[in-house]
Amino acid sequence: MSLFSELPLDAGTDEQITQIAVSNVSINPSLAIITPHKILLFNECGEKHDYELSRNIRCTYVQWHPSQPIIALGWETGAITLWSEETKVAKEEPNGHKSEICLIQFNPSGSRMVSADVDGNVTVWRGINIVSQYKKEQSITHAIFCELNIDSKLKSGNLFFFGGKSGVVCLADDANHCSDVCKVGGSIKSLLFYEKENSVIIITSTLLLVMFKISTSVKTGPSKRVKLSIAGDPQKLQSIWIGSCLLATCSHENMLRMWHLDQDDNYVLTLHQLAQQTQTQQGAATVIQSTNINDQITCIQYEKRGKVLVSGTREGRIIFWKNLSIGSESPLDVDEWKMLPYITVRQGVNSIAVGQNNGLIAVQYGNQISLVQETVINGKMTDQVRLLQSSANTIKIYINSDISNQVLHFQSKGNIKGLDCNDQFMLFWTSKTIEIHEIIVNPKESQTKLVASIQEKCLRSVIHKENIILVNDIELNVLNFKGIQKQNLKFSESEGKILNVNVLNNHLIMWTSNNYIRLFDISRREVKQIGVTRRFENSQGQLGQIRHCAVNSDGSKIVITADQRGKLGPQADNKFYIYDVQTDNFLVYEMPAKCIPLQPYCDRKDRKFFGISCIINKNVQEEKNADENNDENDDNKSNKSKNDDDEEKDNSNLEFYTFFVTSENGIKKQDQYQLESSIEAVFAIDIPKLYFIKRNKKNNSSGQNYKIVEKYLNDFVGLEKIDNQIKEAIMNFSFYLTMDNLDEAYKSVKQIQNPSIWEKMAQMCVKTKRIDVAEICLGNMRFARGSKAIREQKKEPELDAQLAMVAIQLNMKDEAVKLYEQSKRYDLYNKMLQAEGNWEKAIQVSENYDRINLKNTYYRTAQMYEVSNNYEQAIVYYEKSGTHVKEVPRMLLEAGQIDLLDRYIVNKNEKALYKWWAQYQESNYRIEQAVKFYKQSEDYDQMVNFVLQKILYQIIAYLFQVRLFLTKNDVQTASSICSETNNSAACYILAKYLEMNGQIPEAIQYYWKSQHYTQAVRLAREKGMDNEVMSISLQGPNQVKLQSAAYFEEKGFKQKAVELYKKGGNLMKAYNLAQEEKLFDEAKQIARQIEQEEDQRHKKRDPNDLTGIIDDFIEKGQPERAVPLMIKAKQYERAIETCIRFNIPITQDLVDKIIPSEPAKNAAEENKRKELMKLIADTSIKQGDYRLSSKLYTKLGNQIEAMKCLINLGAIDEVVNYATMARMPQLYILAGNFLQTTDWHKNPQLMKHIITFYNKAKAYDNLAGFFDACSSVEIDEYRDYEKAAAALNEALKHAKKSTSESRDFRIEQLETKLNLVQKFVQARALFSSDPQQMKQICEDLLAQPGIDQSVRSGDIYAQIIEYYYQVKNFSQAFDYIKKMQQKRIILAPYLDQEMLQQILESQGVSLNSKNKNNDDEFIEEDVPE
User: Fold this and answer.
1) Phi-psi category of 1029—alpha, beta or left, where left has phi over 0 and alpha has psi -120 to 50?
2) Lowest-confidence region among 514-518, 955-959, 966-970
């Protein structure tokens, strides 16, 4: 927001001005004007100094020191002079050169200087002392100092490149080291150092841009070589650096060419935006006409401090482009440049000089000089006064009082650099003085009065009460209105120079170049610092480079925006910070990625409320696509065309955000505003208003000025006339709502009764997305429709979609659009547009985002046009909706537009429409038209049906006529109708009538004519009319022929039968019958016919087609011969199916043919291969070939199925080997289970395999079961209970390792069994030593329920019986034998036969011989008790 103004200088000399140069000091810069014999000096106000340098020799080159007021002068004699502006002392060295000086260049720090002459001599200086010298060919015209990064080592300070007309570029230092870097064709027009790429950039007179990368490890060569496309004069080419990687060139064209080396891209800044306006009078009206300016840019400079590109043109215009890029000095494209109002001078511009640290611009045009001064538009606001600097020397004074609102225009004598005010006084300063004026408020005419004028220079000045605070580089001076110093505050140079200050109420915040901030209380007699000096950093390090600061109304918070160049390179930061003075802590808030915070503003009274102006970074990827942006721009342009006073908002890249902040809740966003393109900046925040600085006109003349405009905060729009109490309540409501404190928000406004205020608060709820609070507000508004809308919209899953409907009810359509877009509910957005009748926009939204409803949108649009009788547009959208076939005819038919409908159908030329039109014509009995359009629709079925219906009507008519005449017995008339019409149905009716009346021959004829051959033949056969039978049959279908042939065969008319069989298609029957009747001629003829048909059938078959041959083999019962052919024809599935169907064994040879050995070529082929292998394996199982199926399953990787096949085969060794090789737990278990079905107890090796497999599979349940089975075998086979107990111990050990659910039950079962077995073992051990104890144990065991599951009761009885037998107690032994018999225990396996016989004989019982080997009974039934 800057203005540039021209200050012409009176050089006071008639000599030709050869060069101008501006000093680089930050304060009190000077302008040097060089003439052949004088050096004239002027200050920044255009005043000539009272001293000058003059000689009789010509000054050929001049250069200012980069930071000190020292000027270096080169003379035509080769002498070099350093002259200090402060001391007025000149130091000269005449021996450095012997010819005219053509170049002087300082290094960035000013510690070294390089000079060159036209003979090619180069001298390096330290001060005025020569350090080193080099001799080259031809004139040296360019030199640049640099810091090189060579082989990862930084070479700095005194290195420099130089070159000239010879095209050779050299690298040298101040230690007599010099080497040629490169050589280019032509002379050097520009020499620049590209630090980022460690490269030197050369632009030659042949317009070749060459970039050389400097390295010692590889040979130096051009890394880039580009031929510049320039239409201007190459000899007048100028180039400058803008930032670190943007190269700007001019060559007397109407554009500046910009080369962005980092992005490898280029663009141009043209003068096409300029327009020359002329006024012509036409009657009473003044007509303003604009014409494009055709001009050429002659010179350029970049003013780094203000980020302004300055150029001069041939026709005397000074053009300014403002660099808008944030975080980088090198804009990426033309959109990051803004053309400012230009200045016109009297002649073409020759040269431009810029002071790099002060912003002073000097322009030479012809032999005249002007200073160009930048005026930053700023202002200040108090309760009673608002000041705005509207131009370089004009201040607008807005007086707000209860009496009147007035605007004063104050004009100063010099250019105003800045201003400040309080309610009573106005202060502004120029480059020389500070003036204080009293603002005298008068109801009729207010005015200003000069109070004081102080001759002081300052960076910034502040007025507070009756104190003036002057801000300089490292100090604050407090003065009174008389200029007397009251207080001086100096700060450490380590903190850096003071960049700026911000004042609000009684607090001043100051920030420095080294990122230090100080807060002062200025309400007291002396300025006092609050807290400590704070650096802009946290525990992680520096937060950035401070751009702007703002202090809130009570001095408790400081809002800071910053650049992040130090951290993120050229990427600008999207964060801002707040320093909490009380907690000494920085709060951070991250904006959307596209928003770059620029400047903060705090409300003048509310300490919680502040705002941030943001620029939109167009290089950040937006979520919205380009179509949306174009649509919005188009809408705004159309609105502007309707009303010239409307401003375009979409073209602006400036937005304003408002926030609340507290120490407890942090930073919360409150609202945002899209600013108009004519808004230059935010002026102030004073609840309930925002104040902005706005341009009055949109033109490029320097007469442009500014004004203050006000805008109510969104929360107060429509509530302009409210008292302070309600204003405070609304702000509190907004604050608590933003902080998500619903209870306090409601408390703050519950006493308000005004529905308009509740409506505003409902609108706030929409923006803060608090639909629950919105319900309360709508309830207090008594807005039933809005409440209903909320209830209905709660069915939508997205909160934004719900809020959008509430926004619609509150007439917040823009907000509703944003909410629908955020929720991606373009379907609801589409419905909203349709409801408000914005059909074009609805179609646009549907085409871009809601294509699922696109046809429906077209359809509804067509309905809208139909209602408005705009049939042409309705037809267009019915066609787009795809419903025109039905809807257009309906619409035009209902409207009575038959002619239009006819033309539409004919022109449209669509079959569906032709069909509809044909049906319409048919319904109106227009037969010819109907047939015509049926043909055009190519709906032949419909046309045939239509014609057939017509014919059917005629047939039915004839049929009724015949019946009518027959009822009257008028056979003659009926016969004539049948003969004339040949109507088969009428003939059939007549034939039936004649048959019933006994007129058989006539009936047969009419049956024949009606093509009812069966009826005719039947009647002829009944009446023995064989000739008629033969004649009718020959014309009838094959079925009739065959029936008649059988009739003739039965009656013995074999020849007729043969003829009819042959005609009916039963050739074999005809041939056999002809052979029987020895009708050899007919038989030969029939045989020949049979052979011909067979040959014909074989001819139709493709000899390469094996399918027919395969079918023949199958039909002939030779499927085993068909299978190889199926395999050859790659009909693998059919071959396998045939093997299954006809029980053909599938051999290994057959498998090898079906499944080739070579690997598959692709995944599909591999899948097919596996499917065939699976099918063959399954078939082999069905055929009992388990070994083949096992191999196939192994190839398929299905090892479990392969193992099952080996198990079914019963191959023990193969099962063991397969399980051992596969090493799969499942296979180990299968193998172990299978081996248990063999005679493992007779083969210790198998038993070992079983145990090994179960152990490897960790199948502890199976292993425990196996050892349990071992114990049972030991008991059942060998009665060895000791080994059984050992096996049970092993089983119990492995059962305890199990993790199955039945583990505990299994352990309990084994422990019980082991306990019983061990007791029996103990009893057997006591047989000799303690028989009574033995007997007791045995009795206890027998008493155990289910004892046979653990110990066989037969063994227990046998133990007791053997004991009684040994002690000769045969009676007791016999009793136990009877008990065994009662329990149906077989005696033989347990009792010795001899012992049993002896016991029985002792009891008088004999053992039947027949039962000696009987397992059912051993004792006769009459054994005594």
Assistant:
1) alpha
2) 955-959
CB 250 within 8 A of CB 238: yes
Angle at 1017 between CA 1011 and CA 1021, to 5 degrees: 165
Neighbours of 1250 (CB within 10 A): 26
Measured CA to CA, the distance from residue 704 to residue 694 in angstroms comes to 11
How is residue 1406 written in tokens? 């004999």
Distance from C-alpha of 1237 to C-alpha of 1423, rounded to nearest angstrom: 43
Rounded CA separation 855/881 (Å): 4
Question: Is-above-0.85 flag for pTM?
Answer: no
- Maximum separation of any 2 CA atoms in the chain, in Å: 173
Question: Where do we find the tokens 């003969």?
Answer: 979
CA dihedral 1414, 1415, 1416, 1418 (to 10 degrees): 60
User: For residues 248 and 1067, what is the distance between their CA atoms, to the nearest angstrom?
Assistant: 103
Q: What is the DSSP letter of 1349?
A: G
CA separation (Å) from 468 to 489, 505, 1329? Answer: 13, 14, 129
Q: Are 150 and 130 in contact (CB under 8 A)?
A: no
Using CA atoms, how far apart are residues 736 and 204, in angstroms rounded to an integer? 67
Q: Kind and range of the H or E element at 1159?
A: none
Q: Give tens-digit pLDDT for 369-425.
A: 999 888 788 889 998 899 998 888 889 898 876 556 788 889 888 888 889 999 899
Could you count the other beta carbons within 10 Å of the beta carbon of residue 1130?
Answer: 11
Q: Which helix (H) or strand (E) holds 17?
A: none
Q: Round to whole Å and give the CA distance between 618 and 621.
A: 7
Q: Can you tell me which residue has the tokens 């790099």? A: 356
Decide: 650 and 633 in contact? Cβ < 8 Å. Answer: yes
Q: What is the DSSP letter of 603?
A: B
Cα(871)–Cα(1338) distance, integer angstroms:
113
Q: What is the pLDDT of residues 91-146, one digit of tens each?
A: 999 888 999 999 999 998 889 999 999 999 999 999 999 999 999 988 999 999 98
Backbone angles phi, psi at 1177, to 5 degrees: -60, -45
Closest CA to 271 of 250, 289, 292: 292
Exposed (0-12), middle (13-18) or buried (19+): which is 753, by Cβ within 10 Å?
exposed
Quick one: how far is CA 653 from the chain centroid? 25
Closest by Cα among 391, 250, 241, 381 to 311: 250
**Is there a contact between 487 and 527 (Cβ–Cβ < 8 Å)?**
yes
Average pLDDT score over residue span 30-51: 88
Round to whole Å and give the CA distance between 1288 and 1300: 19
Whole-angstrom distance, CA of residue 542 vs CA of residue 1345: 89
How far apart, in whole angstroms, are the C-alpha atoms of residue 722 and residue 720? 6
Q: Hey, what are 655's tokens? A: 């937005």
Residue 284, strand partner residues:
none
> Rounded to the nearest 10 degrees, how much is the dihedral formed by the CA atoms of 48, 51, 56, 59?
-60
Q: What is the DSSP string of 440-493?
A: E--SS--EEEEEEEE----SEEEEETTEEEEE-SSEEEEE-TT--EEEEEE--G
pLDDT at site 951: 57
* Amino acid letter, residue 639: N
Pairwise pLDDT comparison (134 vs 1386), residue with the higher score? 134
Grouping H, G, I as helix, E, B as strand and the rest as coil, residue 1069 is helix
Residue spans of alpha helices (H) in 524-671? 565-568, 626-642
Strands 19-22 and 379-381: unpaired
Query: Are 1077 and 1054 contacting, i.e. CB atoms less than 8 angstroms apart?
Result: yes
- How far apart CA 1168 and CA 829 sit, in angstroms, is 53
For the chain, give the mean pLDDT: 81
Element spanning 503, H or E: strand 498-504
Q: Specify the range with the lowest mean pLDDT, choosing from 154-158, 194-198, 228-232, 1098-1102.
A: 1098-1102
Choose among 782, 716, 776, 790: nearest CA to 742: 776
| Distance separating alpha carbons of residues 1042 and 1048, to the nearest angstrom | 10
